[in-house]
Amino acid sequence: xxxxxxxxxxxxxSRFLLGVEESLGWFGGFCQFxxxxxxxxxRRPFEFGELLRQVVAVGYRSVPxxxxxxxxxxxxxxxxxxxxxxxxxxxxxxPTALAFALVKETGPLVTGLLMAGRVxxxxxxxxxxxxxxxxxxxxxxxxxxxxHYLVVTRVWACVIAAPLLTVLMNFSGLAGGFLAEVIVSxxxxxxxxxxxxxxxxxxxxxxxxxxxxVFGFIIGTMSTYLGYNASGGAEGVGRASTQSVVYSSxxxxxxxxxxxxxxxxxxxxxxx
Amino acid sequence: MTxxxxxxxxxxxxxxxxxxxxxxxxxxxxxxFKVTAGTAFVLxxxxxxxxxVTLKLICGLIKPxxxxxxxxxxxxxxxxxxxxxxxxxxxxxLFQTAALFDSISVGENVAFPLRRRAEKPDPEIRNRAAELLxxxxxxxxxxxxxxxxxxxxxxxxxxxxxxxxxxxxLLVDEPSAGLDPITSSEIDQLLLKIKTxxxxxxxxxxxxxxxxxRVGDRFxxxxxxxxxxxGTADELTASENPLVRDFMKSQQAG
Amino acid sequence: xxxxxxVLVGLFVGGCLVLFGVGLFLIGSANQLFTKSFHVYADFxxxxxxxxxxxxxxxxxxxxxxIRIDVPPRPETKFRVHFRLAEKLHPxxxxxxxxxxxxxxxxxxxxxxxxxxxxxxxxxxADSMIPSTEPFDWGDLxxxxxxxxxxxxxxxxxxxxxxxxxLTEVENVVRSVNVVVKDATPAVKGIVESAHKITGSLxxxxxxxxxxxxxxxxxxxxxxxxxxxRRSAEKTEQTIENVRxxxxxVKKITAKVDESDIVPEVQxxxxxxQRITLQVKDAVDKFQSASGEGxxxxxxxxxxxxxxxxMSDLADxxxxxxxxxxxxxxxxxxxxxxxxxxxxxxxxxKGFAKGFKQHRIWLESAELFSLDSKGIQVLSPAGKRRLDExxxxxxxxxxxxxxxxxxxxxxxxxxxxxxxSRRRSSRVQTYIIDRFRLRxxxxxxxxxxAEPVAPGSAVNKEGIAIVSYYKE
Lengths: 272, 254, 472
Prior knowledge:
The structure holds 3 protein chains of 3 kinds. By secondary structure, chain A is mainly α. Chain A has one domain. Chain A contains 11 helices and no strands. In chain A, helix 5 runs antiparallel to helix 7 and helix 10 runs antiparallel to helix 11. In chain B, helix 3 crosses helix 4 and helix 4 crosses helix 5. Chains A and B meet through helix 6 of A and helix 2, strand 6 and helix 3 of B.
């Protein structure tokens, strides 16, 4: 096959075909890797200690980032909604509108993108570094299944942390919205929180929160795949780190569209 | 594994017509050798001639394109990672850069393989790890992080980690790379001690002839993926192949 | 190391799960999941967007949610909406609490409103049905209106037929009376005029209703109503209220027409008339058999006067019908109610026959009139021929507006000029109505003799103007 492409008289065409072939190969490798992760996930023993370490790294250490971003996003959204709803004299709807925006879409997606940035880059760089300094080989030589030990734990840490961070993002966002609102109208926090959730149904709250587990899986799988297969020294590590962020973000944005459609299909009334 | 392809008895490591290429680049071609138990086998050659690849093939970290690799009498080429893990319990690997895990302390690096086996309670594991560090001269560095160590110390810590599981085979990749001659000599002494005291089979990859002569029993010369010569140091020095002869002599002089 | 990780993970996972739980609890309590509640249901033919989980409010207070909607198995059965209400509101939810479907604000969600009941009614039992009103629907309102219109139409047609047959009879009798009793002429004339008026008014009303103008027109061309429909985006509720009121009054009028007021009155009058006619007939018979006896003549005159009065009442009734809300729009838009009673001032005002085109033909007095043996102006044979030509020309125009005969006179005092001009127009009106079988109510006269004389204006002239109003 590469032979036939190389002998193609059109250089641009052969370059294009090579690119397509490379991308397909890359994607195939990725899918194989994802399958491997799922297979390794159910294999004993569970690397509990390493999983804890990764949940701390991925989840706990993301808390300040998520809370600060949530406050900022929430207050900004609140200010925008206010200026729009004020025209209709519907200021009372601000908490509801904010809760809808945050809980249903903004919270999960922003959390996913922030995780892709912080966690994806971290995992990509860490595993990339371990690959080029032969630490992964060293693990293997010590009779440790490196996919089981390094990759599966990180992916699961992402899957666990994503919905939890989303909840945190939602509440920080509401808190931010409340702060922006209390300056203008001096509303009470209890009233604000009640109004915010009063128009939501469980189908608006649970599926969008749980869908971020898929985001977590994408971020974890993508960044471990890129890091685990990194090559070419320090430059390769940098590349793995950058690509982890870019590809995770693209992946989760695309998958989000499908998930929204899917949740809407499951819960036609509320849902996505 | 077919019945006709049995390993040679008394040789814990045997490569039989192994070929390996990365893309268009051929790293090994039809390469065959055996290593007798309890001896040190030294692979010589210029940089980038497939020496490290040979070590990784023996460890099963990479698979050959063709041929068979016998470790302790078993062909490891068709094994999956779980079966390989069993074989690797008898293997130690000292990497060129020592490959210590950056995220944990030197002592924990050494304790790591012990903890994985989880045969002993925690205090015993710590004691054993401390002993191993002591034996490579790093008794005070248990809680130091790997990034704070010098090159020679890292290599010794790496050696302690490789020895933690009491392997019957130790694979050593460039023991003297990046080290001054004195430190290099210290490492060689350690390797020699391991070979004589624990009857460990050693496979050492190096291009440092003095170091090789200090530790090695048999030598093989790799060039362009082919095994050009195999024998004792004297046999290689007297080799008909000028490349082998020159290589042996050049470094002896220098 | 590992134990510290456990603490941190516990902190992180536990904290976030607690927050998640807080969210679940808030949603649950907003949906009244954690309050003690009871179940009731209501039937609706249309549920206009209510769905499972829709809010239910009792007298405006959030009280629960819709839990299930049973889809009707047959078209004629209704949707059964099951919902839960907070137990604490149970005391005010009575068996007569009305359930209705409302919209939250201008664009908001649909919710179920349950009104507080009356204290006489028992508390609504759990798992019982409470009464419901269908959600408001413009289409339904239109249907209601048009059915009301059909009803009115039917009633009026029936009345018309009954009336015209009676009136024909009355006229016949009157004619024979007329032959017999010369003295009774004013009363008899009055009767005939009233009869004309009655048939005219009824014809008009029925025409208007059939054209669909007096009804929907009345409803929507009514100025206030129209304005509030225009404001509907802002004040939907109020508009609906107005329209509801309007429909209510339409219904009331229909009921009035149908049962209580006008129809029986008309019927009563008609019966009265028949009785009187019989009396007249009787009197005439007696008169003819015993000619010369003064008593009978007096008797006849009294009877005829009675008949006149009765006919006038009836005329007033039909006239009143035109002014009521239901038909008002049609007549208002036409620009006049009754040409018979139109004043010069009304005629010359801008409101008259607004939007109609005007075709005006001037005829000199000398062309039309000659003096009879008593010196009174009457139409000359030449004048009649001239009128025939003119009207034949007017007839080619669309006949959807009034035809007005304007009378002019230029000599004498204001009063003299007025009388002369009125007489002239009146004679021409009588002639053309008879000659061309025109509908009397569409041919009006306007005496313009009393208008102040302006030099060089037509007002000075002697003669009449025939003005036809029409729409293309």
